[in-house]
Write a structure and sequence with these properties.
This protein has 9 helices and 2 strands. The chain is mainly alpha-helical. The longest helix is centred in the first third of the chain and has 26 residues.
Length: 262
Amino acid sequence: MSNFNDLKARVLSALVMVAIGAGAVWAGGWIFAALAVVLAGLMGWELWRMMAPADPYGRAEASGLVAALLVAIFTLYQPGWIGLGGLALGALVMAGRMPRDKLVFGLYYGLILWAAHGFILLREGMGLAFMLWLILIVVASDVAGYFAGRILGGPKFWPRISPKKTWSGTVAGWLLAALVGWGFASALGSGWMLVPLSALLAFAGQLGDIAESAIKRRAGVKDSSNLIPGHGGVLDRFDAMIAVAVLALLLALVGAFAGLHG
């Protein structure tokens, strides 16, 4: 019965997350931006709470509030390269207040800020189809990696950090992501560069997953929090998307997606 209850919680939580996420992505504008700001705040809170669990009440909460405010302010007033610089500076200041592992905290906190900033800018500037492409890359990589890793097995990708990930699953993730890119390139007539870019973004997502796993292993926790019943924390669900959003934003800023809108 307890297993059934866990499954019920996971399914209900997944349905709620899909409904909120899909609705916000489709709506775009301030609705999507507000969701990205809230998620940045929750992830900033989780990161501090994981890495400094002994800190008194208010430190982790302040970390989350600062993350949300930084993303909101720089996205509204200084989007793009200047915004990325300001967010990096904010992450540096917050890292100075972290009692341990300042470098690890600062780097990952900065990635959270850049990712939320990036998602807002990409949804606004590149459109709905572009966001669906990014999301499907992560989903495809995750699904292919899961099934290929368990069916084919083989050597581990990085056993010390993520003992379940295999090279077969990793490569399968690249291939299915490339297939997603081929589908979008065909549908949108946007050029075949989407195929290798899809595989590259999938690899970034895999590294994002590993990075969060390394932080959790270092902190000695299984999940980033228990905010989402049956699923752990927000970071557990968005670790791959963080890396994908950051890389996609950087590629967009240098013109890698020129002419691709939808």
